[in-house]
Amino acid sequence: MAVTGNGPLAGVRVVELAGIGPGPFAAMLLADLGADVVRVDRPGGGGLAVDPAYDITNRNKRSVLLDLKSADGPARVLDLVQRADVLIEGFRPGVAERLGVGPAECHARNPRLVYGRMTGWGQEGPLAHSAGHDIAYIAVTGALGMIGDPDGPPAIPANLVGDYAGGSLYLVIGVLAALQHARTTGTGQVVDAAIVDGTAHLTSMIHGMMAAGGWQDRRGANLLDGGCPFYGTYETSDGGHMAVGALEQQFYDTFTELLGIKDQAPARKDLARWGELREAVAARFRTRTRQEWTEVFEGTDACVAPVLSLREAPAHPHLAARGTFTDFGGIVQPAPAPRFSATPAAVRGGPALPGAHTASVARDWDVPALYPLED
Fold first, then answer.
1. What are the residue numbers of the active site?
2. Is-above-0.90 flag for pTM?
3. SS (H, E, C) the chain
4. Percent of the chain at pLDDT above 70?
């Protein structure tokens, strides 16, 4: 596998201390963009029981095996740190320090290092040392309470909103900003990326709307949370669903005309009749299959799309034409994003198997002390 890609981060070296969830995904983003990411895996593995051969969050990376609790484990990590631009870790606060690879030790070896810390609660605060997962972090920030039917419990959006949007993406933003600062000033720093902070930040627009009186603090009562009859999902005759997002007047007009209710639908601005409008829309969608409605709306400005499953999505004509998904090593997976005109990113290698690249990393990073660990 190539040491680095041709993406915009070609030449950037990243050390990732193995973890689960948002840390590996953030490191995958950096690797997708061309960084040389070396994942430090622990002997015996750890975390969730995912077959390493299918864990695509470890694609485009290399892996070495190091036991941070062994006598020489921390020293080998610091050898890598000395030659790195970025380190990413996702331990609870204080753990990296106890292992001897905290910010102080790392910056003593490499003052330019960007030290990225990925946690749920952050490095300080009453809950900083408590265990948690995505669902708890999005719960306390108000994000979870916004999602779902008002007559039922909040709907769980997998781990996309907390772990990946509020966590990984904010860590990557922070790391890239700190990397720019380090290259300008020669000084590294610590990036404290807490999922609660990032998730709360994602709700900025909603807080503004609420302050202006344009958002009610409850589910299913607002423009973007399913309360609006022309921004939601509807079941089709075959049990499928269509997603409607006809917010603007011109798009709404096209939507109601193609749906066949333009002359019967109550005025869209009459909130008192939104329930009636929703029933009219729902009744029409139930008269045809998802595929039939897809053919009606595809390519129009009605802002309507079929709700596809994960297995169906790669075959959608637009996504297929763009190559939004790719098949690498027999695994269908999302292609790197976003896209760059001068430095395109690519999937260069499959999931890095633990310890598989010890020799090449030792050679390329000039860390000969890793050689004794070679299988």
1. 133, 163
2. yes
3. CCCCCCCCCCCCEEEEECCCCHHHHHHHHHHHCCCEEEEEECCCCCCCCCCHHHCHHHCCEEEEECCCCCCCHHHHHHHHHHCCCEEEECCCCCHHHHHCCCHHHHHHHCCCCEEEEEECCCCCCCCCCCCCCHHHHHHHCCCHHHCCCCCCCCCCCCCHHHHHHHHHHHHHHHHHHHHHHHHHHCCCEEEEEEHHHHHHHHCHHHHHHHHCCCCCCCCCCCCCCCCCCCEEEEECCCCCEEEEECCCHHHHHHHHHHHCCCCCCCCCCCHHHHHHHHHHHHHHHCCCCHHHHHHHHCCCCCCEEECCCCCCHHHCHHHHHHCCEEEECCEEEECCCCCCCCCCCCCCCCCCCCCCCHHHHHHHCCCHHHHHHCC
4. 97
